[in-house]
Amino acid sequence: MGSQGENVRVIADRYRLEERIGRGGMGVVWRATDQLLVRPVAVKELLLDDTLSAQESRSQRERTLREARAVAQLHHPHIVVVHDVVEHGERPYIVMELIEGGSLAERIAEHGPVDAQEAARIGIALLGALRRAHDAGVLHRDLKPANVLVEADTDRVVLTDFGIARIAGATTLTETGSFVGSPEYTAPERMSGDRTGPESDLWSLGALLCALLSGESPFRRDSLGGILHAVVVDEIRPPAQAQPILPVVRGLLERDPRRRLDAAEAERLLREFLETGRTPRVPAVYTPTQRNVLRHPAPSSSREAPDGAPPATAAPRPGGLPARGVLVAAALVAALAGAGVATAVLLMSDGGDGDDPHASPGPPSATASTGVSRPGHTPGRSAPGPAPTVTVTRPPDSAPASESTTGTARRAPSGYRSVRDPDGFSLAVPEGFTRSPQGVRIFYMSPGETFRIGVRTAEPDEGGPLAVMRKADADGPADNPGYRDGRVTETSHEGHPAALWEFTWNGFSAAEGPRHTYDLCWEQNGRMYDVWVSAPVGRAREAKEYFDVAVGTFVPA
Q: Sheet of 91-97: strands edge to edge?
């Protein structure tokens, strides 16, 4: 986050910020104390677009505060309680109840998928939360495992960040040229630019149920273009683990929002499964009855979802996107896959580890490491980390020359700055990171050098990136003390041959402690590029965010 947020200790003369406990594309979450009521709270600092004019910025803040207060009116046992909405230093803050417990993303990563009964229990809780919000005219727009908390003592399921995607100004691509969301969990109508309603949140719930049952979204792919193609075109294949509640999953993952299972029927079917233990069946004639649909009324349709039915296909009609939606979505996928693609930045969701001001500095790794996993996935683990938030921004027709827009530099997300390195390349680095050249390697270091972003360019090597990374892996024990859990994966980066290397090691001193490295190497335009991030093992989630942003915004010399 920017330096302003780092310097704030008490906001609105009431809330004392004590420890940062999460960071993502929409803002930073702090553990705090309400000094008036003497109780712990969570405070979310919303990061607004700093490229706007003063008048535009003021309008966005006013809209943010207005819509945040609307979200605060939602009262439901499975929606996080919003205590207050304040403005401090021309920046909005949302004060919420502090939930002691991890997210579903963390639960899956640590303990693996859940069984069908637990998935049904969680699904019922989230459907109740969604129905309450939709009745009030509020959409979530970013439903994913990282935005669902499970209270440690009670196992209560709590939906967080309700309406934050909308509050922060996110829209569809065709409205303003920008899109904020998590593509693995985003409905195809949002991808295609159609006006969206409650049905879009229900699609996201279907993808979330699949992740709960199998460990990952059914739309997970190795690239952003691949994810978009999977959402709008590919055959939808729910995981085998979804068989006990398959009619619900298939009904929620119906591409045509007019035919999608509504919240009331999905909840009824899940309750039937919990009560009987048998796979529920959708009635032979079923009419969606979703209330407060934020679109023009659509004609009802019927369906039948027998047990063991084959997965839904990609046919536009019936059961697919309307013809216009397919065409628009296909054009979107093609555009993102082309050379003229706009910026695509992979950001970690909220829920990262807090800062450790006592972390000891350490020397940068002497080994140029490379490797990036597909978004939100740690090689060698069956369960995903939090799904990434993806920001896709079309470059403006014209922009004044500045640090963030000079040449071909890609726009940095909030909390980062774009730098054009003297060596010719550009990338986005977190605010406060400073440049430190070390021979052929260029580092951008956090204060105290806790986090290290490294870049190296070289002539292509025989065998390509995969051979280079395999050799680095073989040399790992000699170059990195305590080297372990090394893994090299062949992949691609923006259509170029690439290899991912991820490993853990002991650091260069006992004071530095164990570290984890994410590293990507690829060939492009006759050069070999290497971008990596090294961080303490306890801060790997935050490091993955920095890594995804660095790789996603990197522009070669």
A: 10-11, 15-23, 27-34, 39-46, 91-97, 82-88
Q: Is the dihedral of CA 309, 311, 315, 320 positive or negative?
A: positive
Under DSSP, is residue 158 helix (H, G, I), strand (E, B) or coil? strand
**DSSP 8-state symbol, 184:** G
| Residues comprising the chain, all counted | 557
Q: Please give the radius of gyration of the chain, using alpha carbons only, rounded to the nearest integer.
A: 23
Cβ atoms of 408 and 555 closer than 8 Å: yes
Domains of the chain: 3-97 (3.30.200.20), 104-293+300-337 (1.10.510.10), 345-553 (3.40.1000.10)
> Worst-scoring range by mean pLDDT, 54-58, 229-233, 291-295?
291-295
- Give ∠ CA 47-52-58 in degrees, rounded to 5: 75
Q: Is 63 left (phi over 0), alpha (psi -120 to 50) or beta?
A: alpha
Sign of CA dihedral 94, 543, 386, 166: positive
Burial class (CB in 10 A: 0-12, 13-18, 19+), 89: exposed
**Whole-angstrom Cα distance, residue 190 to residue 295?**
13
Question: 432 pLDDT exceeds 80?
Answer: yes
- pLDDT category of residue 265 using cuts at 50, 70 and 90: very high
Give the global pTM: 0.56
DSSP state of 361: P
**H or E segment at 523?**
strand 515-524
Residue 382: count of CB within 10 angstroms of its CB: 13
What lies within 8 Å, CB to CB, of 271 at 6+ separation is 120, 124
State mean pLDDT over 367-372.
31
**540: confidence class by pLDDT, cuts 50, 70, 90:** confident
Q: Quote the pLDDT of residue 305.
A: 30
Distance CA 550, CA 418 (A): 10
What are the tens digits of pLDDT across the range 95-135? 999 999 989 999 999 999 999 999 999 999 999 999 999 99
Binding-site residues, please?
A: 44
Lookup: tokens for 444: 């951008």
- So what's the pLDDT on residue 357? 24
Q: Which residues are annotated as a binding site for ATP?
A: 44
pLDDT of residue 263 exceeding 80: yes
Phi first, then psi, for residue 47 (nearest 5°) are -95, 110
Cβ atoms within 10 Å, residue 316? 17
From CA 405, how far away is CA 327, in angstroms rounded?
32
pLDDT score of 51: 67
Please work out, in degrees rounded to the nearest 5, the angle formed at the alpha carbon of residue 357 by the alpha carbons of 355 and 361.
110
Token pair of 224, please?
């952003």
